[in-house]
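Notes from the 1:1 (GR / supervisor)

We went over the backlog. Supervisor wanted to see one worked example end to end before approving the batch request, so GR pasted a single chain during the call. The sequence is below; no edits were made to it. Supervisor asked that the structure be written out right there so they could see what the output format looks like.
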Amino acid sequence: MADKIISDVNGFEPGELIDLFELDMSTGVAASTEPVFRWHAGYNENLQEIVWQGNRYSAFPIEAAGFEWSGKGAIPRPTLTVANITSLLSGVLSSYDDLVGSKVTRKRTFAKYLDAYCYTGGYPVGGVCSGESGGTPYSLSKSDCLDATKNGSAGTWTVYTSSTCASSNSNTGIWYASANADDTAYFPEEIWYVDRKALETRTHIEFELTAAHDVQGVKLPGRTVVANTCPWKYKGGECGYDTTTYPGGSCSNSTYTTQETCEGNSDTWTPRYYDIDNNSTNSSGDDVCAKNFTACEKRFPEPQEIPFGGFPGAGMNMG
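Structure output shown during the call:
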């Protein structure tokens, strides 16, 4: 949590608290590549679109409840109640399996920290996106612009200033300044997932949310706890070892102890490998990981961080 937020919370006049929500359907059972839907509930009589961290949030008739953590009993299962008078959302639900599995992010900040923005082309925007391979219209939110899955490829985001805003859209842009704008001042984000559609009527739809580790069928931990065996694929993504990044070895001229100085003086550097018994060898054919902690220590000497995938502490007697 930002120091500013802590100071505000403990002050006499922290200001208006803004609740912001994001719905990402790419994680759902029926995944979508549509842009992330962002909204705020229009509290504090703010019924306009607002801009935060470069992203546009629309005012939307929605009620959010049940986010409080009590520290006792079950994990909260918040609800989102959304207006559905036009039945527009019903069509979305039928296409995307009631949004089950979609990620909902709750963000909170104080109104005084919202972004300055440019009102141009009928929209309040924090910047302009260019270069997306999906073509126009380009994304109007920073996160969508920089996301390669939203409009063909990641684009380039250029933040508006008062001068660039004034010259935008045939010199019709209107600049709205925010003296205290700070996109780093916010409460910790909360990540939830749509667990089910609890209710659907002609006027509204209610969704029940759940925490990521409370989704039906999910078990913790996600893999078996073994004290001294690493499950990672040797030299795979989780392991990250390769003889270029972490060479170790010897030089044909013993004067030099690093690959850079050795090869820089036209000498031959022989990488050091380790066999299944953790013995050093100069043969790449004998390079086999023993999948234990010692094998990791050999390949990632201090001060390198050891990416061991096992649980060494599981074998300790804590009594």
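Supervisor's comment: The chain has a mean pLDDT of 83.
Batch request approved.
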